[in-house]
Amino acid sequence: MIDLTGFLSPNHKQKKQLLVLWLVSILAVMGLCFTPQPHLFQGIQTPNVLAIGRLRLLLVPLNSLWSLGQLKDLSEVLWILSQNVMNIFLLYPTVFLTHCLSKKWHSAVKSFQLGFLMSLGIEVTQLILDILVDANRVFEIDDLWTNALGALFAYYSYHFLVKTLQN
After folding, report:
1. pTM for the structure as a whole
2. Where's the VanZ-like domain (predicted)?
């Protein structure tokens, strides 16, 4: 299962199974990120969201931390913090499986870049969806780094798995 260079080397059947899981993870991300959310969570307002026509932008870095004092109750605090935690793990399965399938992204920097680029693609697509169909999505600057952080966690998890299997 581990080749001489220290990477996972799945057989043909395992590679096909990993590829199916990878495709399912991509579809799950697309469903979570691109499904329109009209009037979803109306009672919860995220501070500092800038509205420009149909577009919703949250361009304040670390907005969750800076805005805690503006939130009305514990449910809003938990909602905002859970959004950040979920963003960290949004791309984790996809990037982890990418490492299992390809050696191309095998470094911490490359993995972080992959997560960042995937996140940027998601955020820009959400803007396009808002223009086309009023999807009620928000371009959040914090999503870029939280998703990239999740990709970095996936890289280190992959290496932990490889080291564990080698022993």
Report:
1. 0.88
2. 23-161
